[in-house]
Amino acid sequence: MSDKNESEIENRTAREAVREAVERSDSIRDEVRNITLKALSQGRLDVERIKQVTREVMEGASLGAGARGARIKECLSEAMSGMDDALATSAEASKLALEEAAGQLEHFGKQDLKQALDELLLLEDMFLETVKRVATASNGVVKSTLNDLVQHARSSGTSVGSRSADIVETLNQSVGHTVHDSIRVGSGAALKVGHGLSQAAAGFLEGLVETLETKVAGYHGEKKSNQPACSGKP
Questions:
Q1: Side-chain half-sphere of 72: how many Cα atoms within 13 Å?
Q2: Is 234 exposed, middle or buried (0-12, 13-18, 19+ CB in 10 A)?
């Protein structure tokens, strides 16, 4: 099976998982965030992959919200917040990959790193444009709600937009200075560099997901252990 086919299957799986979560869960934001993170950590973490996952997740959320009646607006807002949280975490993974790349200047050129930084700044716009396209393909309350959420996000900002801007500012100060005298690589090597960066970012994201899951499991275990034991008396 090709990488493209595997990616399409993974995206459809994410869409179905999100649809079910939005239909049934009372923790939509957390579940959407976790589903999105797992989908993004598979394979490569590049712009195209992020677009695909964002579209599938928000399509799943739209389908699930349609079954929630009066809670449609609330459910879509929670789902979009979960998506935003996941993208902010993906920006952290890209930051780790870029920091590692800056330490291997024999394989990376200044322009390659600059392009990667520029792509981080596009994450918020890509996110909102993708939600806008999902809204266009929807109708009724789902369509109007998604459009309202996008408009609100553009005026008030998003977590991924804020985090990406902070990361780029930090990396421009460190990475930009470090690569000042680096030698440009050829176009073929640049493609290889981009592929390597996206794979590294996905690997870092997978590690962040595992850390998050461990913390959540530990929290629930601690919470359970602190509950009073049953006395066995009627």
A1: 15
A2: exposed
Residue with tokens 């086919």: 5
Gap between the Cα atoms of 71 and 65, Å rounded: 7
Tokens of 199: 């794979």
Report which DSSP code applies to 45.
-
Task: Report d(CA 126, CA 130) in Å as an integer.
Answer: 6
Residues 214, 216, 221, 224: what is their CA dihedral angle, to the nearest 10 degrees? Answer: 180
User: What is the biggest distance separating any 2 CA atoms in the chain, rounded to whole angstroms?
Assistant: 78
Which residue ranges in the chain fall short of pLDDT 70? Answer: 1-11, 102-112, 175-203, 208-234
First-to-final CA distance of the chain: 59
Alpha-carbon span 81 to 154, nearest angstrom: 14
Q: How far apart are CA 77 and CA 28, in angstroms?
A: 9
State both tokens at 145.
């709600």
Total Cβ atoms within 10 A of residue 150: 19
Q: How many CB atoms lie within 10 A of CB 125?
A: 12
Helix axes 72-102, 187-225, angle to 10 degrees: 120
Query: 190: exposed, middle or buried (C-beta count within 10 Å: 0-12, 13-18, 19+)?
Result: middle
Where would I find the H helices in the chain? 3-24, 28-40, 47-65, 72-102, 110-121, 123-136, 140-156, 159-178, 187-225
Separation between Cα atoms, residue 60 and residue 132, nearest integer Å? 14
Residue type, 103: G
The model's pLDDT over 101-120, given as tens digits with 9 standing for 90+, comes to 766 655 555 666 777 788 88
